[in-house]
């Protein structure tokens, strides 16, 4: 599974994520966000794994969608500056792949549905 190391140590290791724009369907948003956040251009949507409402530590509620995606021509590891702007502007993320045995290293809220990724 693809993850990245955030340059702010407290942000930890995360799965790629993003915000669906008001005019987008979630399926369109996930493809756009993957391209902006990872730099990968050959992203294929393989279905939704889960959907939930999640309350962040600051009390904000997020409607989250979890999709299974495949990519082609992705290296084992790379760095990328997210292209979507916002709070990630100017940051550099280090992307790499993890196995099911390594999923415990993710920041809170990012690992709840990983069993669905590794079981399909």
Automatic annotation (TrEMBL):
InterPro entries: NUDIX_hydrolase-like_dom_sf, NUDIX_hydrolase_CS, NUDIX_hydrolase_dom. GO terms for molecular function: hydrolase activity. It comes from Salipaludibacillus aurantiacus. CDD domains: NUDIX_Hydrolase. This is NUDIX domain-containing protein. Residues 1-120 form the Nudix hydrolase domain. Keywords: Hydrolase. It comes from the Bacteria.
